[in-house]
Specification:
There is one protein chain. With 237 residues, this protein is of the alpha/beta class. It has one domain: Vaccinia Virus protein VP39 (Rossmann fold). It has 8 helices and 10 strands. An 8-stranded mixed beta sheet has the order 5-4-3-6-7-9-8-10. Strands 1-2 form a two-stranded antiparallel ribbon. The two termini are 26 Å apart.
Length: 237
């Protein structure tokens, strides 16, 4: 499989069960990394989001963790081939174990976690592990974040829209409050299918925004999506 080329880096993905996709690109492009000095990417996979955040932040030290050995090797290769190899560390470790070993030192945590909870599994076990909550339940993820997020830090996750309410309840149990939500629809007039949730330790009035990926009529991408992803995708200005 050929590499996926972005404007400032390239992603090899032949060893990863989950390839470069719109969800990961959306999360990496939308999260504001300004002022963040210690960033953690939970379930880094190919290293895509870690690399996107390194491109956005000139000084942040970024750690990507993944339980899968093949994904870890792939992410390491992608990081080493990038302009930011001196600022990104990749570690093969579960979020649960990493959360027990570290302190509350990360001021920005991001995750594109396994999506499907209590869903039918496919015959592809590698794909099952990254798409289903087999190795990392939502509760385990939020518990790990609680042990890792600095007092003034922010946590972002992209999830199916139907999982948002339950995920927010889990967050509140651990003292992490949903303070913002980006609602994502594939096309105008279509229901919201994905959400990016923002969590903080301080409960505030939550904001909501909306984003449509595809444009109307013959336009492949909406203007908002083009503007958001233009710093990364080739052939977008």
């Amino acid at each position: 499989m050929s590499n996926f080329r972005f404007k400032q880096f390239e992603i090899g993905q032949d060893r990863c069960a989950m390839k470069v996709g719109t969800d990961g690109v959306l999360l990496g492009a939308w999260v504001d990394a300004a002022g963040a000095e210690r960033i953690l990417d939970i379930g880094t996979g190919t290293g895509l989001i870690a690399l996107m955040l390194a491109q956005k932040s000139a000084t942040a030290r970024i750690t990507g963790i993944d339980i899968d050995p093949s994904a870890t090797v792939q992410a390491l290769e992608n990081v080493r081939a990038s302009p930011w190899s001196d600022r990104i560390a990749v570690i093969q470790v579960s979020a649960q174990e990493f959360g027990r070993a570290q302190g509350r030192e990360f001021d920005l945590i991001v995750s594109n976690p396994p999506y499907f909870d209590k869903a039918l599994l496919s015959a592809d076990q590698g794909r099952n592990r990254v798409r289903h909550t087999i190795d990392l339940s939502y509760g385990d993820l939020v518990k790990a974040v609680d042990g890792l997020l600095a007092d003034e830090g922010r946590f972002y996750a992209i999830l199916p829209a139907r999982a948002a309410e339950g995920f927010c309840r889990i967050g509140r149990y651990f003292g992490l409050y949903c303070t913002g939500m980006l609602k994502i629809a594939t096309k105008s007039g279509k229901p919201v299918s994905r959400v990016i949730l923002e969590f903080r330790r301080q409960e505030t009035i939550a904001w909501e925004e909306e984003l449509t990926i595809q444009g109307d009529h013959d336009s492949r991408w909406s203007e908002a999506y083009r503007k958001l992803t233009a710093p990364f995708y080739l052939n977008l200005e």
